[in-house]
Specification:
The structure is a homodimer of 485-residue chains. Chain A is α+β, with helices and mostly antiparallel strands and 485 residues long. Chain A has helices at residues 9-19, 40-59, 76-80, 83-86, 103-116, 120-132, 136-149, 194-198, 201-208, 253-270, 318-327, 353-364, 398-411, 425-435, 445-450, 471-481; strands spanning 2-4, 22-24, 36-38, 64-66, 88-94, 100-102, 162-169, 173-175, 186-188, 214-223, 238-248, 278-282, 294-302, 305-316, 333-335, 340-342, 345-352, 365-370, 373-378, 389-393, 417-419, 439-443, 452-457, 463-467. Chain A is globular, with a radius of gyration of 27 Å.
Amino acid sequence: MSAKNLDSLDKIVSLSKARGFIYQSSEIYGGLSAVYDYGPLGVELKRNIEELWWKSMTQVHDNIVGIDAAIFMHPKVWEASGHVDGFNDPMIDDKQSKKRYRADMIIEEHILKLREKGKEDKADELQQELDTTGTREGLCEDLHEIIMREEIRAPESGAFDWTEVRQFNLMFKTHYGATSSNDEDAIYLRPETAQGIFVNYKNVMDTARVQVPFGIAQIGKAFRNEVVARQFVFRMREFEQMEMQYFVEPETDGESYDEWLEKRLEWHKEIGIREENLRVADHPEDKLAHYARSAADIEYHYPIGWQEVEGIHNRTDFDLGRHQEYSGKKMEYYDQKEQKRYIPYVIETSVGLDRTTLMVLCDAYREEEVDGDSRTVLKLHPKLAPTKVGIFPLVKKPELKKVARKIEENLKQDFTVRYDESGSIGKRYRRQDEAGTPFCVTVDFDGLDDDTVTIRYRDDMKQERVKVDQLETVIRNRMKSWKPE
Amino acid sequence: MSAKNLDSLDKIVSLSKARGFIYQSSEIYGGLSAVYDYGPLGVELKRNIEELWWKSMTQVHDNIVGIDAAIFMHPKVWEASGHVDGFNDPMIDDKQSKKRYRADMIIEEHILKLREKGKEDKADELQQELDTTGTREGLCEDLHEIIMREEIRAPESGAFDWTEVRQFNLMFKTHYGATSSNDEDAIYLRPETAQGIFVNYKNVMDTARVQVPFGIAQIGKAFRNEVVARQFVFRMREFEQMEMQYFVEPETDGESYDEWLEKRLEWHKEIGIREENLRVADHPEDKLAHYARSAADIEYHYPIGWQEVEGIHNRTDFDLGRHQEYSGKKMEYYDQKEQKRYIPYVIETSVGLDRTTLMVLCDAYREEEVDGDSRTVLKLHPKLAPTKVGIFPLVKKPELKKVARKIEENLKQDFTVRYDESGSIGKRYRRQDEAGTPFCVTVDFDGLDDDTVTIRYRDDMKQERVKVDQLETVIRNRMKSWKPE
């Protein structure tokens, strides 16, 4: 048996569409860019990932609790967090096509074209200039000057008819409630879920009887009006995050940061990701976000290259401090033992649920040659598999169907199952292979006499004959002992 | 023991805040009206409800699959669904205060005031007039005329300085993507989740190998800019729905509607709601929504009265028909056995997740007098309880703590647990009573010799001594056999 790993994202896009993992949003209307819907297999996979993450945080740790804050928050939250002022991209409009572009991207593309034409010196010079444009104040003017001077044309219309460069906020804005003036009631879709945790930090402390160090975990949607959103579910305008903010005593932040980085890396292995496809990339100090003392990405080796799937950040007391300033509410913690008062530091672990789902699909994907035949198989961790057990009567005979249906009836109390009687048994196995179903149970005539069935394992395609009343135990044991190949 | 049921919503609001079930959103900034955040206990309760609903739909039925469509959808979807044209409220602005009101509500309040002043005849007459204003075309003019004629003043400013009455759409609008013209890129936050199912109906049929009758289930957020949003989580601007759309052959819609109404009523009983607090209210034919042939509410007896928690609707082929018309894509199903082609009819079951959570809290709430003492207890179905097991060392002695921690370590693999060593044992029981924790395990000195602990049951407060290695079994059995009192 020879196996091939995934070599292009397109294969996952096709499989996702064909088998019902992920569809483009509003496809019958031509689609909505950078938004996707999860299909029947996708939603089960996603829910399983969520559930494992949630348990690994809240159930396993006695000092981590969950919350679920709303997407809508008071607009002041985003002033305090820095998003109203700082969460911008420099944009320029082509007056002819009415299309809007990121000004720095327009220049980047121009540099690429110069290189294609062999003008490496000019390209290097421009790149150098672009890299050093910079302070937020002068950025728009600097970028505009370059575009004008180099006479860079609009990518689609080919026109040289630009507006000024202006900062555009990436938050989606809407109007809320019942006032007639439009500025008073502006509200944003949250661009990150973390702030829902920070504004509830006091509520949680007062009601959940936690003591520093403690964590608050949350799963939820966030929204960013990215100009360049692409690469399937990797970068979407609407996406889901699984975040845990861990509140610690100021001097212990470094230690806690190291600990969580290690724990989170471990989690990715526990859900079945192969070690060689994971790595940690530290953010160099000069590239840190305004709120961070240190930061690292857990990266996965996607077919599009090494990319961030999770971020671990030492956010210091930045967020709580800002909320204290903007809300006038004390955000201090009083340590009774040590008799001291402080604003806790925060270690954040933030993993993209969509990116994790994509990682899981990519890592599980194999094309295998088996005795001259080929199959596509998703070697998902059985705990993540959307369907745990396929149940087939060998042929469409009433006596076999009856037994198969009875097995379905029993197993579906504890597992997601799929009854299938159509097509050859080989075809049915292949369908379940593509869906990542770890176990298939086939009812045949031999088994009618001694209450046995064959159970077939997805990964090595081996088959065993087992007693019907042993099925549940066999499946449970296999699920526990599973390891990625 | 004498028990008292819930008599006011305020008690649930207070308990929710105090124990961390539900907080007001962005509370440190003065709150955001009609939006709430779920705290540590609330999020676990909500997740448990979700999980039971999801399993009762997708895992138990072999012809129901799930999806998870995005909140953002193509704007054409809302033209097809009728929401762009029809999802409006008639609004009027007070020019002095700049506040906006629902015009019909202004008149309703005026009628109430008339009644308070004993002017019943006038009130009846006006009510009659209001009830017969009506066709959508003339509605705004009619309402405006009444307000002018009766010289109704603005509730807050007391001014009589109104704008015209205009229709305002209840959908939240935002701008999407990268074009500079503002009308092209308008997009809505979905006001219902159902359309995410309808636009994916073809995708699901093509990939999930389902045949009519089949269902698609979904849990997700929806958003409505309600002018009058109130009554805690009962009517929010951001809320969560659990919906299942069941696609059937046109002539079988009546039968399927009856079946689902019955099944859904049964589900509410299964999650522990007392039968006497549930009822079905049919919508009279002249009050049906534009898409519905028949509709019924499953109502719960909240402290604010009988109110809808779930709606069952026969949506006919309205939605699929409209999407066929607007997208140009065939929405027909081809029945191979019968060799006929049709657009399926849709039976919808739509239950509010927040309303269900509120119902569960209300129904479980009891104040009990026990031997002169009183306690507040949430008699939640154990499957729904946020914490399954409280684990206490009787006193803070190392040898008891060690055993208690070991029990915690074991049980937390399968259950949500809460270790607690602070305060008297009585206080610890009361805390868990208020959290709805069905089991408390106490480690005492007697038990050290024979590996036993006492398990205390929330509902009757009875205690039993059991072997430590029997705990899991005892808990599992009790969870299965639990019935509401």
